[in-house]
Design a protein that fits this description.
The complex is a heterodimer of chains A (about 550) and B (about 170). Chain A is mainly α and about 550 residues long. In chain A, about 75% of the residues lie in helices and about 0% in strands. In chain A, helix 23 runs antiparallel to helix 24. Chain B contains eight helices and no strands.
Chain lengths: ~550, ~170
Amino acid sequence: MWIENVLGAADAVFQLKNMLLMTIGVLAGLIAGAIPGFTITMAVVLTLPFTFALSPIEGLSTMIGVFVGGLSGGLMSGVLTGIPGTPSSVATTFDGFPMARNGRPGLALGIGVWSSFAGGVISAIMLMSLAPQLAKIGLEFGPNDYVSLVLFALTITASLAGEQLLKGMIAGLMGLLLATIGEDSVNGIERLSFGMEFLESGFAFLPVLVGLFAFSQLMSDVANRDEARGRLMDAGAKSVRVEHLAAIREIIRNWAHLVRSSLIGAFTGILPAAGGSISNILAYDQAKKADKNPEKFGTGVPAGIIASESANNATAGGALITMMALGIPGDIVTAVMLGALLIHDVVPSPSFIGDQPKLAYGIFIAFFFANFLMLAVQSVALRGFLLVTKARMYALASVILCFCAIGVFALHNSTFDIWTLFIFGILGYGMRLLGFPLAPMILGVVLGPIAEVWLNRAVSSDSDPTLYFTRPWSLFFILIACFSIAFPWYQKAKKAGKGWADYFIPGLCAVLSIPLFMMEGTVRPIVAGALILVAIWIIVKQRKAAG
Amino acid sequence: MAGLNRDALTAIVLLIVEAVFLQQTFQIREMSFATMGADVWPRAILIPLILCTLGYLAQSLRRGPDVVASENAEAGETVADGNWLYRYRNVFFCYGLFLAFLLTLDFFGMLIGGILFVFLALTAMGGASPRALALHALIAVVAVGAMWSIFTFALRVILPEGVILSTW
């Protein structure tokens, strides 16, 4: 049965048309990643309109190609010019650029390309092995647990806004509110349409997403007249020969950094809303701490590039694990993929892998294969990407704006969708100017209808609100949600050296052990006991250090 | 209002919008068979949203007026001077042209309207020298023509034809 599904999925993925689409996707992702100011999310969002006419597996394979390509594309501009193409490759510049300036740009690129590949493959293996297991845990979730999970996903996204926590929370709640406009997803009752006919069916997901994210991003990119007219990158567009063999040798020599960083990347991806922009910095920091010569970091050491590039590519696999196993997007890119699945009437949930095995295994295989495609395309067409960065932002923005209009129209053949794009384009740009993060709002729009359906089921089965605190998984998510809200204060307190900050992490471990103790079986109570021991160990260690 | 900072003004506008939405939740039709009314979820969102916005307002008011705004006022620069309009002129051009593109879509259609929009946006942001005009026209025709062809012939999407093309 399992083999049948894998073979069936492989057959769909390795169709000539699908492979061609994936290659185009990887190429588009690499180009988008190489252009500073052009994010991976924007590239994936712009791919969405093309997927309507494709089958679910073709559409998702193409988007996965863009995702994987985009994560690797940022390294080229980062290494050659010191300007990261995407936030996911910020840490790559710390050692990649100095290495290139020291006369080894080919080696720096080679290490980046092969580390991206290895990180992607490691996370693909994790995706294939962990997603079905996590989905089994997800099958234990009841409606109350799901409502709490959505709450957790939204709070953690908002908490990533750091000091702007309130703005993050407001953005997330506004996203949820926007999703309520139009027909109620359970009973089909019209609401919040203000008597306007065009609002009766609500806003479509795609124009809202493209408007909020892509349109507003383009406006930010062209806001400065001089920068908009200048070339995206003037330096570094020379031909560079990638030193593949030397790079592989360096990676083998630094295998511990590779494995650690890939694991950091994958686990960061599993956390809702935490993406490659966080994982590359986190992995770089850990690599520096673990290395025998931390003082050399920043001068052009291979370990720095390996840590950053393997972590950011591994994040993609982690984000897909959460989406496929729980139906909760791991980041904005997987939120867009979730939207693409919904357009094809496929609803990801813990039963997704069991209900749609061919599609699920197809996603696994496509992700695995996309890493090989990325390696091949990046090695062959490096010079071409560098030429693209010679373009001017105002030219790209004008063309892409028109493409956005055509793309969103194609969804329902409706001019109203272009108006939606325009309105949300203004709203998104206004939010950027006022310092509101867009990620919580987009997750709110995606998760809103899902949360309402689960809340309705929870109320229908048992309206007792204490269930949210007596069911172990629900309590688990509520507790993490509380800690994630407090996280920005913890960071501030830690910097200020306040005493209570020392008890935050031990407190989190101790508190999380409560729902784990409440769970059945033997493994989870043992994990709970281990968490308490970790909490005690951290406190003792801190006391010793202080005393 | 002069003593309010940008965040406080934003919070006040948000509170007004939220109040309108809250009022609208009382207009939602009730269904006797539904276990959870259609008004419950929007209200469950609006209540914490209003609380967060009040927190945001309080935070903004504690901070006092914007320093930059008052410095500008002292220097005799006001919003009426149109500095911000000049600073964001590219953004205003784009939004204005996009609005014009939308309003004339039924007449020009997606192909001609798209070409005109891209050409005018390029020229507004990139300059209007004879060489630039020729380049912008080429980019507009090739890029929009290619996109229009992909959606029309490959993806079989019927894009708005417009009066000109349909008559012709």
